[in-house]
Structure formats: structure tokens, C-alpha cells
User: Fold these one by one.
Assistant:
Number 1:
Amino acid sequence: MATGPRFRVPFRRRREKRTDYRYRKALIKSGLPRAVVRISNKHVRIQIANYDPVGDVIVATAFSGELRSAGWTGNCDNTPGAYLTGMLAGKRCLSAGFDEVIMDIGMHVSTRGSTVYAAMKGIIDAGVKVPHSDEVVPSDERIAGAHLSNEMQERFSTIRDKLQKEGVGAINNG
């Protein structure tokens, strides 16, 4: 006599390998807003999400394509591009009234020096507190684009200085 199903179907987002619910629950229990970093083949997207039982509320967002208006001509998905996007997200997070977040890298594999941690370094340099280990952050040379051409290094430093001085207005105003 059967007593129930033999197989339990996982949640749809788990089946699609999009959400690790055990990891998500641990992040939500921290009580801090999450800095959700998602990297595609061409861009980096960072959203500052605050938990709500109805659904997460996005309080700030930054997209690496926005760097084009500030003069960035390099790839938007490399380490310097992720750092600048993180700095932009951090500035927007501060202007939204949040000064501390926790990183949510989702289903990305945690690798030392990866693009995800370059974005985290940008958020930290913008003035937002993020609990982290210094071992995972890429080197300053890598973030500054030492592996790229001199022209890209100059553009990186120009845009970084512009973001540090003008904040979010550096991107919004072009």
C-alpha cells in the first residue's frame, strides 16, 4: 500500500539552478540588505535588495552599461568594469540610506580574485561596510587594469576619481 510520493520535486528556481534557498535564508537572517551581484557574458548588474515577505525590494541598482556615459570604453564584464560598477552601486546605496550590506553572489562559485569580489571591493571603496575577508579581493594592480593597455588604465583612474568626487552625478549627468 502506498503511503505517499517517492519523489519530491524541488522548487522551480532550484531546478533551474537559479536560487540556493539555504544560502538565501542565511543571508536574510542576517537582517542586512543584500548586494546582489550578477555577471553575464557582457555586463555586471548589482542590486541592493532589502527583504520583504511579499517580495524583495530593490533600493538601488547599478548596471555596467551605464559606465559608457562616463567614458568607459573597455569591457563592462572585466575586473576594472566590475569594480567601477560596484563603486557606482555603493554610492547609490549610500544615497538610499544604507551604509552596510552583505554580499549575495548567488550560484556563482566563490573564487579568490574573481570579478564578483572586484565588484565587492568597489562597493567597499564607495564607503559601504561589507563583511569580507581580504584574501578574496583581487589585487589593486588587477583592479586598476595593469593587465590592460595604458589608455584603459588612464580611463579607469579618471572614471574612478570622477565617481569618488561627484558620486552618482558623475554617471547620471554623463
Number 2:
Amino acid sequence: MTIMNLTEYIYILSLQDGSCYVNHTASVSQEIMRHTKGEISATSGKDPQLVWVEEWNNLETLQKRVASLSELSKESPKDLLHILQARLPFGGYHWG
């Protein structure tokens, strides 16, 4: 089996209905623009907000991580967000 090396990003959006959307992309900014414009049916009209990004360089492990996060997101979106928040440095992440 060949394992492809690349740079992809897992991203998580928090949605207005309390759910989360988990996916991956090579360009987070382009993907967020598509969500904001309503081009992605799963998030259209749900005010998607970016809450998490992870960088991955191995497709096989990326797919396993996406599956794991997606499962937790479906079971309990709040628990998923709490788990991710706990991984941030004390005081949270400061943009800029």
C-alpha cells in the first residue's frame, strides 16, 4: 500500500443549530469561503464558524482522524468542542 504525503487540513465548523461539521481540505481559506457563500449544502444557512484546524501530512492518518472527529461530532458536538478547547494553551489561542 502506498501512503501519500501531502499537506491537508482538517477543519471543524460550529453551526447555528448546535452541530459541528468536520471535513478536510488543501486550502482552508477557500473552503471557508465556500461555506460562507452557502455553496456547501450541509452548512448552508447555518452560520458556519471556524473553530478548529489541524495540519496533516499523511492521507491515511488524516482520514482516520476525520472519521474519529466526525463520529464524536455526531454523538456529542459539545463534547467535541470541549475536548478540542482543552488542547489549547492556557488562556486559549490568540489570533494575530
Number 3:
Amino acid sequence: MSTETVHFTFLIRRGRFAEAEPILRSLLAKEPDDVELHLHLSKLLCRLDRPKEAQEAARRAIGLAPEWSYPHEILAEALLASTNLKEAEQSVDAAMALGGDDADLRALLTRIYLDRDRWETALEHAGKGLAMDPDHDVCRFFRTIALGKLGRHEEAEDSALALLSDDPEDSANHSARGWILLERDSVPEARMHFQEALRIDPDNEDARTGLAQSLQRGNPVLGALLRLLISLSRLSILKIVVFGVLLGVILPNFLMSRSNPEAVRLIGRMIGTAFMLFICLAMVARPMFDGILVLSREGREALGPHEMKGVRWSVIPLFIGFVCLGLWISNGGRSLPFAGMGWFAVSTLLHEGFSIRHPWVRRRVLALAIVASVLAAWFLIGPPILLTPLALELVDSLKKSGDPEQAKAVLAEVAHRMERLLSMKNWFFVYPALALYFLASYSDDITQALIRRAPDEPE
């Protein structure tokens, strides 16, 4: 074994990956056809959060040894690092076709299906992996998570306790136990395990996320809202749309019909207002929850530096959004809900953008936040500029309709202007507000899509 190889191995074992890279590349320069060196480079680049380069290194290894299954497995891991789930699954299938089935490949498939929220399939693959190797820690870990997601709490509890008893100083095992307890609403115990996971490994982002969520659930109001949002996330999108249309649109409109008594119409207005508030709160759940965490020392410890920066930037638009909603509830004003939704979208996108570690993705999400800011400002200043003059013209026209000779012409003009007013309102306010709402609601999906396409770029 050469001196460079010994030095490289030493650095890898110490976790000094950035220092190990130039040594490994030096070895590759001398032996460019060494498949194992390319695979070592791929794994190293994944550790350095450069998944695109890791994929290139794994593909070079596949080109040098097309009949070997292991390079396909390494490629799958690199693809998973950039959330390319479909291609990762194809790489696992290729590895199985070349080298047969094993527990490592089943663990990869389990992780892929967990990321797709397909809990039953994930559990099935974890079970097959454990049938081949009952002591496979990764399969045991992901099986525990899948059982918790499926609501099989007793089995998940037994599995998590078994992992902890095997290695009580493993950060991932404490994290798994924390998530299972969180699924059962055992918030104080979950928080304790997440804190222990972070004590063992301060860089465990999964435990940091779990600690933040356990602190949020410990708050009675936030906990109730968070549990409701989690329950809704488990429903199909069709059920959510049907529920939203029935409860938020059809029922309030029916109750507010002029033929109903005033008390019934008041109930309709209250339901419509409550539904609008829920929609807005759901949109800003993450920046609002993280903003409340910042108020306590324990909460600040649960948030990383990126999340803290996201909170700082999202506070002002969040405040403006709540002011708009407050004015709408107290004084009315049809454009204020759109303005509130616009500023909530800005808050969500700013929080998402500054919380992202990848600079390339961050810049694009923040560009969307700037567009959202312009639209949100327009929702405040646009109605006086566009709609108020048209409304005043409409009132003047209605005054003239008292003259019988001019009545038909004036009423036709009124109808035309009313149609124009409604059309302008839809195109300049309603549709952009809905676009912003969906943009903010699917900010996670937008971020994941950008991550899949992002080039490697150091932070």
C-alpha cells in the first residue's frame, strides 16, 4: 500500500473529506482506469455534498466495469443525494440484474419509497432485506420509520427499542426513536431522544428537524394546527380539493344567500372567514412555527443557522400579511385577502430560500420571492389605481340611468363596464393571488425539483 493510499485512508477515517479529495485525485491521475478509485471518489464527493460530480465518478466506474453491480449501487446513492428517486431506483434495478439481490440494495429501495411516501412498499423492501440479513442496521432503521408512518406503533416501538439496545450511543437510533414517539404524540420523550441524538452528533439534521417539530407540538395551539396539517397531508389531493370547495366556497355561499335570515348569513361569513384564515395559516406554517421557536433558547438551538436567517427575512412580510388579514376581518375590503396571501407567499418563499444550503437553488427560490414581493405590493396599491376609477364611473353611469330616454343605453354601458371591472379584477388580482398561493404551497416541491437539476456549487 502506497504512502498516499495510507494517508487517504487515515483522512477518511477521521472525517477530513476535503483534505482527502486532492490525494484521491492524485491517485486517479496515476491510475485513471482503477474502478475502485472512481467509486471511492463518488462516495467522497457525496460526503462533500457534491452529488452531480459523485454521479459522474460512479458513471465512469460503470463505463470501466459494466458487468459489475457495485458501481450501479454507488450511483444510486449519489442520485438519492440529489433526490433523483426514479433514476436511483433504475440504478438499483440494474445492480440487482447484474449481481443479484442483497440487503444493501433493499435498504436503498426502502429509502427511495420512504421519500416517495409509499410506506407499505418501503416496509416490504425492508422486510426482504432483513430476511437476507436480520442484523442489517439500515434496513432495521428504515423499517422502524415505515412502521411508525403506517401507524403500527407497537411494532415500531419494539423495533426502535431493539436498535437502541444494540447501540445506545448511535445518534441515528435515538433519532428513529424520537420520530416513533412523535408519531404517538409522546412529545416530551421524543424531545429527549432528539436532544440526545444531537449530543452524540451535533450535525444530525434529521434529529434537529425532529427537535424543532417536537418543540412546536409542545405548544397547544401550534401543536393542534401541526397535527391537523399532518393529517391533511395524508389525504389524497382530490379529497383535499373536494373538502376545500365544499367547506370554503359552496357552504358559505349557500348560507350567505339573501333569502336566508341574518343569523344564518352571519354563520356563513364566519365559516368563510375561518376557512380563509386556515388557508393562510397553512401557507405560512413553517415560517410561523420557526419564528415562534426563535423566542426560546431551546428553540434557537433546534434551528440551524440557515433556518435562523430564513426566520429573520420572513418576519416582515409575515407581519404585513397578518395586518392585511386583520384589516379585512375588522373593516372588510375585497382586495385585502389577496394582499395578505401575497405577503404570506413572500414570507414562505423567503424562509424556504434562506433555509436552503445549496446556493444555486437558493438564488432561484429567492428570485421567485422577489416576483412574489412585487405582486404582493401590487395587491395593495393596484385596487386604488385600477378598480376605484372604474367603480366611480360605474356609479356615475347608474345615476344617469334615471332618465327614461337614456336608460337602455346607460344600462348597456353599465353592464359593459361591470364586465370589464370583474374581468380586470380576475386577471390583475384573483388569478395572480391564486398563482402565488400555489407557488407558496408547493415551495417544497419546487425546491426539490431545483435540487435535482442543480449543479454542484460550494456553499
